[in-house]
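Running log. JK asked me to keep both predictions on one page so they can be read side by side. First protein, sequence followed by its tokens:
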Amino acid sequence: MKTLNEELNPGRMKPEIRFKLREAHLGTGEGLSYAKIFGRHAHRIAAEIKLGRPLRLGEVVHHIDGNKRNNAFENLMVFASQSAHAAWHAKHDAEKR
């Protein structure tokens, strides 16, 4: 989709336009979803900084305390896949019961 948009409308999403759109949308939500920075989830950016490399395809970032707005490095865990993340939850959620 991104490639098609770039072909059909090459001047549309220049950095200046993205910045204007970002500024227009900031603070308009209900704060229930993941924070984003220029269209990327902030927790994924924080995890990349923590790891010192880009996330690989399929890697999942988990918030240890369950607060999706707490992107502190010590609150983030990276799993190799969604299935590894689900297995972690199956084990740890069962321990809480």
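And the second, directly underneath as requested:
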Amino acid sequence: MLPYPQIDPVAIAIGPLKIHWYGLMYLVGIGGAWWLAARRLPRFAPDWNAEKLSDMVFWVALGVVAGGRLGYVLFYDLHSYLQDPSLILQVWKGGMSFHGGFLGVLICSWIFARRNGKRLFELVDFIAPLVPIGLGAGRIGNFINAELWGKPTDLPWAMIFPTDPAHLPRHPSQLYQFALEGVALFVILWFYSSKPRPTMAVSGLFALCYGIFRFLVEFVRVPDAQLGYLAFGWLTMGQLLCMPMILVGCGLLFWAYRHEKPHAVRAG
């Protein structure tokens, strides 16, 4: 068994002002994606300047935060938020939904693409390889918060989380998701997009791989207490939400290679 590192969730405290690691992880994700987007921009839109890029980052970040929070409220804990709507603003306590953020990014990307002469999937293909940076950083935030831990296990890398009332050795499922959704997904998309691909192909590969990775990790992750298992005694909300992602990913890849010609958006 490995010891849990006991990191204080509050990174900086200045009087009543507290800056949480969870919030800082979002800044890491957005900042890292912004830096890599600037590297790729000349190949995607040579006529776009730094101001245009900053506008795009703003719209995408808006989709992540607003969609992620609203998605969590709607998909995972609507009853609690109806009882106390002020909880919606307490993002430092966690409670963000990837699938809500995913939908938020699609909506904001569609708006931004229409305003700037791009097709939706041209823009999403450009954005997709950047997303795993934020996903990985977010899972590190979950780990520091000691939340979203896994099921009990006797594996040698099991950990006892301070937020677990049972004090049982558990799968560090946050680190599994960091490795798969953050590191592995980034490597796959970065190298895949390093060569010209048909429009929608990079987006499709993102949806497919994320859906598979998340679906698998959910088998060793404890479901949200307020929901439990939703179908067949083993399917979680995360798995149910990943099923359409996997199907959409397969559909986009099929459509891309059947109907489109490669375009020259490369990773750099």
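Observation for JK regarding the second prediction: The chain has one domain: 10-263.
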